[in-house]
Structure formats: C-alpha cells, structure tokens
Amino acid sequence: MIARFAALPVLAVLAACQTAEPEPVAEANPEDHALAQAACGSCHSVEPYGLSPNPEAPEWPAIANRRGLTRETLTTWLVDAHNYPVDMDFYLEDDEVQQLVDYMLTLRREDYHPPY
User: 79 is in which domain, residue-wise?
Assistant: First the structure.
C-alpha cells in the first residue's frame, strides 16, 4: 500500500512536465476574432500561434505580450492613426478599436516566448 502512494509525487512531477499550449487569459469573442482577421490578418498573424503573412508585420501575440503594454496604451496606439505605417491606411471606429484590443489581450500568456 505504501509503495502505491510513494509513486504519486513522481507522477505529479511528470504530469507537470508535459507540454501543452497555454490557455488564453480570457476567452476570445468570435466577432472580435473575425474583425481582427478581416482588418489585420492579411499582414499580421492574429492567431495565438503562427507567423505573420507579411514578415515585417509583428505577430499579435508578440505585441500583446510586450512588457509594459496595457489596455490603455494599446487603445491609444490604435486610435492614433498617424502611428500606422503608410500601407496600413485605414480608419477604425471606436467600437472596432475596443473589439481589437479585447481580442488582442486574449493572446497574452504568462509563459509566452517569441517564435523567433
């Protein structure tokens, strides 16, 4: 009986070492994801994993996991269209900005490591 319970700590350690994709901080709203894909997905990877179609466009998880990024700083950047590169010439309504911010923040991970 004791031998049976002696293996439990070893099994717990082994289970903790298994690798699995981390869970998002919050559940992504499908409408927010659809807007992100439609408005930004031709250049950026807006998925939790993957590389951007445009190598010069950072992946959204890389943006979402930047040190110091907050809901407020991300919102400000998205609202200030003059910050966009020339080839990103488009306008976002306030509700669209909030949808994109909400979605991008679901891409945060405690154990995030850039793909490159």
Answer: 2-105
